[in-house]
């Protein structure tokens, strides 16, 4: 039986662009270029390596987002994934992590899966909670923050590196895993891969397909809300301390006048 791998990816604003909030205090995704989240590229890479080591495996990349999010799917397909699922619905605007986990879980169940692979976090929200939320909604084990991952004999195993030690972890399939940016450099799409991606199937789903009510997601259904946002203040010139015997005293006086959280 084929190993069914689902990789969750996200289309995010380019970190090198001029990112800002829209009038409703959600991230403005219309006026800035977007791309596949770099941290999700590691998840795609690990899924590809698992597939290459397996006798039979299929990779589906899954995203939730606007029409332009299709670009993230095409990037993953050009890297070597087999097919894609794109959940797009106007009522998803403003959905938070909890709502996104609901949508992803429903789509994963509809697609079919044995292993769900995620990046360690998205490069826009950087919350890192989605893998755990997915595992809870799917009622399956989670093995997160892995620097190394493999699948064999109906189990997923991996290494989680901490500051002072490493752990070897294991879970029976089906399971959710997340991988870090230390798991291995993501491959570049080849010209052949880019051309092949144009012919690979991309399934489109909306909330009705997933049997999700509009009030469960979006801004109205969000459990979190941005109350206020302000532009980051411009950088000011620093204070230069010339140490002529009084440098330590000047530094101490400066620090004493600062407010720290």
Automatic annotation (TrEMBL):
<dbReference type="InterPro" id="IPR014730">
    <property type="entry name" value="ETF_a/b_N"/>
</dbReference>
<keyword id="KW-0813">Transport</keyword>
<comment type="subunit">
    <text>Heterodimer of an alpha and a beta subunit.</text>
</comment>
<dbReference type="InterPro" id="IPR012255">
    <property type="entry name" value="ETF_b"/>
</dbReference>
<comment type="similarity">
    <text>Belongs to the ETF beta-subunit/FixA family.</text>
</comment>
<dbReference type="GO" id="GO:0009055">
    <property type="term" value="F:electron transfer activity"/>
</dbReference>
<feature type="domain" description="Electron transfer flavoprotein alpha/beta-subunit N-terminal">
    <location>
        <begin position="24"/>
        <end position="214"/>
    </location>
</feature>
<keyword id="KW-0249">Electron transport</keyword>
<protein>
    <recommendedName>
        <fullName>Electron transfer flavoprotein subunit beta</fullName>
    </recommendedName>
</protein>
<dbReference type="InterPro" id="IPR014729">
    <property type="entry name" value="Rossmann-like_a/b/a_fold"/>
</dbReference>
<dbReference type="Pfam" id="PF01012">
    <property type="entry name" value="ETF"/>
</dbReference>
<comment type="function">
    <text>The electron transfer flavoprotein serves as a specific electron acceptor for other dehydrogenases. It transfers the electrons to the main respiratory chain via ETF-ubiquinone oxidoreductase (ETF dehydrogenase).</text>
</comment>
<dbReference type="GO" id="GO:0005829">
    <property type="term" value="C:cytosol"/>
</dbReference>
<dbReference type="InterPro" id="IPR033948">
    <property type="entry name" value="ETF_beta_N"/>
</dbReference>
């Amino acid at each position: 039986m084929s190993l069914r791998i689902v990789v969750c990816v996200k289309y995010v604003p380019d970190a090198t662009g001029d990112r800002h909030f829209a009038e409703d205090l959600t991230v403005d995704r219309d006026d800035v270029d977007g791309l596949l989240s770099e941290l999700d590229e590691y998840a795609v890479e690990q899924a590809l390596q698992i597939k290459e080591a397996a006798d039979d495996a299929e990779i589906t990349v899954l995203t939730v987002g606007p029409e332009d999010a299709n670009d993230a799917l095409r990037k993953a397909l050009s890297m070597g994934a087999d097919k894609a699922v794109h959940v797009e619905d106007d009522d998803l605007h403003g959905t938070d992590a909890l709502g996104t986990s609901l949508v992803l879980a429903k789509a994963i169940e509809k697609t079919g899966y044995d292993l769900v692979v995620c990046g360690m976090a998205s490069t826009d929200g950087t919350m890192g909670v989605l893998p755990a939320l997915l595992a809870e909604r799917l009622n399956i084990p989670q093995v997160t923050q892995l620097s190394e991952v493999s699948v064999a004999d109906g189990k997923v195993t991996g290494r989680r590196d901490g500051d002072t030690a490493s752990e070897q972890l294991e879970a029976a399939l089906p399971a959710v895993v997340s991988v870090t940016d230390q798991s291995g450099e993501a491959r570049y799409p080849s010209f052949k891969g880019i051309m092949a991606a144009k012919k690979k199937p991309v399934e489109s789903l909306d909330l009705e397909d997933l049997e999700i009510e509009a009030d469960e997601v979006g801004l109205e259904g969000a459990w979190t809300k941005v109350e206020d946002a302000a532009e980051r203040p411009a950088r000011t010139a620093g204070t230069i301390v010339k140490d002529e015997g009084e440098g330590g005293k000047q530094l101490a006086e400066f620090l004493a006048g600062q407010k720290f959280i």
